[in-house]
Amino acid sequence: MKTSLKVFLFLCSTFILNYTVSGYTFVDQTEDILNQAYGSLTNGYCFYIYNIVVTRESGDLEITSVNSVGSVNISSSAGNPISQTFANQWIGSISIIFIANTQGSFQIAVNGGTVIASIPFNCISMPYPIQQLNTGLTFIKYQDSYHTTLKFNVTRPISFDPNSPFFSVNSPYNCKFSALSTQNYAMSCSIPAIIPVYPVPKNIVVTIKNVLDTSQFFDILIPTFVKTIPTSETYSPSSQVYQDNLASPDCVKTFYLLWNGSLSGDSYYQTTTSTDVPITNFISSISLQKYKKVLANQNSILSLYSKSYTSLDNGSSSKYKMIVTQNYTSLEIASFDYLNINIPFRIKPVFGVTSWQGDRVVDYVLNSDTLNIPFVSEISIGSYTIQTKLNYPYGIFSTYRTIYQFDSVIVDLNYQMNLNFYGRASTTSGSVLDTNPPIINSLELIGIGGLQTLVRISVSSSSGFFKMVINFDFQMTSADLVSGSLQNGIFEKVWDNKNLEYIEKNGNGFIQLYDIAGNKVNSWVKSYNVSSIPNIIIQPQASVLERLSYPDITYFFFYQREMDLSTSAVSNTLYVNFTNVNKDTMVSLQIFDGIDKTFWGKWDNLLNLFSIDFTIQPRAIAGVIEWKLTYPLIEYYSYMLPYYGFNNQQLIAITPVSDRMPPLISKLVPTQTSSFISWDVTITDQYNGIKSGKFSVLGDYDLKPYNFSFVVDASSSPMTYQYTINITLPTECVNTVYTLNYVELTDKLGLTSFYEYQNMELPYKSQFLIDNNDINPFLPILADYQNRSIALTCTPFVDDPSPPELKEFSTSVSTLDVGSNQRDFDISFTVADYNNVSSISTRHLPFCYAHGPMLETYKVEAELVSNNPLYTAEFVCHMKIPYGFGIPSTGIYFSIHGYADVNSNIAGFTYFQLTQLTSSSSMPITFSRAIPVIRETSPIKQNSHTITLYGYQFGEDSQIKIEYVGGNSTSSTPTFLSTSVIIFDGITAGQKGYNISVVGSSVQSNVIQFTFPDTQPPVTRAPQSCPGIPECGGPTQGTCDGFGTCRCIKPWVGFDCQSQVVVIDPIIDPNNPGGGIDYNTTLPDGETITIKGIINVISLRELKPDGSLFIELPFNKWYYTNITGNSSDTLRFLYQSNITQNSLTTLVSVTLEFFKVEKEIIFANQPVQMLPSSLKYNIQLSEYSFNSKVNYLQVVMSSSIQASVEDTCTFQESNQNGENSDYFKLQINQNSLYGRFIKRGLVDNKIRSISNSLLNSTEIQSSQTSNFVSQFVGINIPNYSKSAILDPDFSLLIDSRPAKEQQTSVCQSIDDSGLSKTQKIGIIIGCVIFGLIIIISVTYYIYKKRQQTRWTNSINNKISKN
């Protein structure tokens, strides 16, 4: 290619990608399809959004604004910056409204004048009328809405924006629309409120108007999702209101409503089943939250509603009504009032402040008589603010009754900054003024597999880098330094992106960067030429059109569609794929079964699909299980399956009873004596059984809780459990009130009820993590909440105002290298009560605290060493300091908090108090950066092959040392290596355990140990030859796997790779599941014949252990349904029949599936390749009444193939030596009906081996002539309890070897009088043998005659001699 042409193409591509007109670089990141929608605003105007990045080049002016100019067809325009970094880059969007039916281009200008790019547009108003292409719509319930899909004959997307005037929906329905494709639109509807008595329209009416003339319109009528009951029926649910009088001050107060609805009929408001009656609120603006089904049996269902209130709701009232519809008129069946809400405000601590300031440390002391533990602490150091939930005993160094002294240690690096404490106190520390913010010189996001990203940044800061936070989730600190210095260095760490809630859906990635002088900079990932987070699909813009750019689901298959959850958990697998698939990412599946757990999966290289293993716990609510599939960040919902052609893949829970209610306290009895106080707690659970419980009791003057817990034996699942909380009173008694302030009860499934007085969460977490609607364990006894407390009056009363004091303190080392692998040491200390009035409390174990810069804290609970005499106690803390703790300070600083006497006088020793006692109050630190340190590893299993190590200072020459249990050792070279992460292969499978370490530059890291339970040695299989002459058709047609199975090379198929696929259309018989085949072919003499094949399911046989027949039950009648749906790849037909044995009816379902194209499916965790034009039979049996537990079942299937003329040859053979499947073949000339029977089935939801039998007995007779051959096959099912699923399939093939060349063929022609080859050979052999017999007989006769003559002569001679 000529140089000039290369330059021309380069310049063209540069212009297309970047639109660079001036020195500024312009990048348009808009998805084109999003700005191709019809104009649907008033007068047909178009609303388009352009996502752009403008970067300042050398010599350009700073960027102050970016906007659109230069088109008379723009009605309005606005620039919306997302980020502006030092005026060098502008990231944001330009939103423009264009006049209808205009086209042209507009310009992008910087600073109101400099044009840097020109962008074309074409605004076409929405046409009128548009035609609906699909009818007979039905709704699918998902969460609290109902969903269907509308299809229109349009060529551009329609923007059903809520503000668009061209459409409306009749009241009381509220419907939203979003584009699935140019023609298809998801419609999601609900009824937010309804007033009795109010007529409910039988149809949802969607009115579409002409955007250019709104007087023109047409209506689309869709039958409502609302169910109604006739006038003759009534419905009266039982219900109860529980008002939570245990609300914490200024926190949540939950209002519970429970009702028990009859399951008879299918008639209630906003429901697909009769179990789903929501409560609507039509008076108060405060709506109910968290509707949840919690219990069910075959007769009724129990549902829970809750509403959270705070003190902000004080003075308001709420009223709720339960509504059903009768003859499409709303009817009130129950109402609930909640009047005069009055929740106390939280009492916030009021602090008086003093400070002690020494070398590099500021110690602030706060005095309060209103301290409630825990409380949320907010401290600011310059622009760095940390919110912490402070739990006992942090900072407490003196208490007496309700008077507290509390301290907070600030390690001062001598930078001048403002310090703010709890909004109550502020001061300035340090002498060096540094207001220069830190700078990110570069940012790299490197995908290392799954959703893990290696983040690498280069930072400059005059004071030094402290921390970077991305999306409020990922944090990198100064300890992550890999080269350079804190002032100018490179830092890296692995980010696990599974916390998708934190990822900005526009992909910009919000960055907060701090230095150690308290300066802060906000920016975005895209500001550093990083397009997005690796392996995350970014939503282009939040709009009703966003799904247009999403991948489609191309494959979706649940390993088990129906899950029997009656008694135990069931494991399952979802197999899924998408268009333009990214194999390096991960996918997640959230199951909404009342536990709502999320499961993760990854790409399976063998199946070429994503696979997600998941488990659903027993006793979920019966029926369709809703779910959400995330292909980060794209979300797909269970109601979307019909649109993607998988409407037969809904997940079904089968169970007679359901339990999603955690254990509750049904009775609470307090008791008080002179020596102890106690609570007898009765705990109940409906079906799951009680697993464990936790309780805490707190005294008014004692901030240290009394903690209690129990765990029920794993072998039992009690529905009722009695537990006693017992507190022995000290001899030095203090008048106080003890309160049960924390309860956590868990059932066998992990469902937990929870209550905590003073329960708090950090405000910034609430939008992602916090569920304030935990079910209160006191729910059944809320009216008796006073029983939570016991008031204790002591006689005699002991008044001791003096807490114990610390008198000795020492550390086991004098210095510490926080970059090494030896970061452990001990702190030993002694406390004493000098007045000898109150003995030291051995229940109050103190904590040792280490303090670093920027509010860095590490704590360890002490161990009691000695308590003799009673007024003195010795303690030790085993410190394990985190890597890099304390830098860039030159030391770490200590304090002790939480020791006490038995009168609940709690005390501590601040850092400054320690300085007065000992020189060990702080410890000098260094930070080596040449020692490899393993922080953690990826999850390790016994069969793990690839392992990831996370840590610090992995050098370029790093090798992994692996030492196996038993003495063998080896080394491995990383497949991926950076300073903070190593990925390597090569672990030998089946080991009992091994140690892993990293060695680099002759320095060895810490050792990570793994041990595993003993396992059985793997079974070695003997090699087997494969079928076919030559084997597997020869090297150009297939290869043998060494174990009896051929691996065919396309287009060859079959168990011996000597056949090819015949493309046909199936014949479907609605009377029985008999797949039919009609195929025309030509004989060698030119005659055209028809080949017909028939497959059928005949009967169910119960057999004895010896294989003899006990009973045969034929299938006399089948019920047929076409369930094909919208799939273009397959046809699906459902046949259902039943049989009755011993008064138990067994349902037999046969799903006949015809594959138009080649497709891989999964059955029994085994990939199965379905050929084009193949027929698959999915056979499912429900519970069967066996005559004996040792008997088994046999499903009998028949298959036959027949030619329309007799001058043909037939042949049949089978192969039962394959590892995974048995095969048989029925052949006429070169055409064969090929059957495959998988040797595994799903028996009681578990994978079980099954066998197959070729039947040819007096009861079932296969037959063969020259133009007809049939075979009966029995699929043998072991004795089962609940269900069995089988999956054979059939194909019509062309064989490379005609039937007449097979030795056991049967032929019919003029010259051979219908004799087969075998018969002819038999006649020939018979004639030969007969001739030989005659010859031998004659020869033998002559021989014997001569012998007789010789014998006679000999005798005569002897006689004559005598």
TrEMBL record:
<keyword id="KW-0472">Membrane</keyword>
<dbReference type="Pfam" id="PF23034">
    <property type="entry name" value="DUF7035"/>
</dbReference>
<dbReference type="InterPro" id="IPR055462">
    <property type="entry name" value="DUF7034"/>
</dbReference>
<feature type="transmembrane region" description="Helical">
    <location>
        <begin position="1321"/>
        <end position="1343"/>
    </location>
</feature>
<keyword id="KW-0812">Transmembrane</keyword>
<dbReference type="Pfam" id="PF22933">
    <property type="entry name" value="ComC_SSD"/>
</dbReference>
<dbReference type="InterPro" id="IPR056645">
    <property type="entry name" value="DUF7743"/>
</dbReference>
<feature type="domain" description="DUF7035">
    <location>
        <begin position="659"/>
        <end position="795"/>
    </location>
</feature>
<keyword id="KW-1133">Transmembrane helix</keyword>
<feature type="domain" description="DUF7949">
    <location>
        <begin position="1026"/>
        <end position="1061"/>
    </location>
</feature>
<dbReference type="Pfam" id="PF24893">
    <property type="entry name" value="DUF7743"/>
</dbReference>
<protein>
    <recommendedName>
        <fullName>EGF-like domain-containing protein</fullName>
    </recommendedName>
</protein>
<feature type="domain" description="ComC supersandwich">
    <location>
        <begin position="1116"/>
        <end position="1293"/>
    </location>
</feature>
<keyword id="KW-0732">Signal</keyword>
<feature type="signal peptide">
    <location>
        <begin position="1"/>
        <end position="23"/>
    </location>
</feature>
<dbReference type="InterPro" id="IPR057709">
    <property type="entry name" value="DUF7949"/>
</dbReference>
<feature type="domain" description="DUF7034">
    <location>
        <begin position="804"/>
        <end position="928"/>
    </location>
</feature>
<dbReference type="Pfam" id="PF25820">
    <property type="entry name" value="DUF7949"/>
</dbReference>
<dbReference type="Pfam" id="PF23033">
    <property type="entry name" value="DUF7034"/>
</dbReference>
<dbReference type="InterPro" id="IPR054484">
    <property type="entry name" value="ComC_SSD"/>
</dbReference>
<dbReference type="InterPro" id="IPR055463">
    <property type="entry name" value="DUF7035"/>
</dbReference>
<feature type="domain" description="DUF7743">
    <location>
        <begin position="433"/>
        <end position="534"/>
    </location>
</feature>
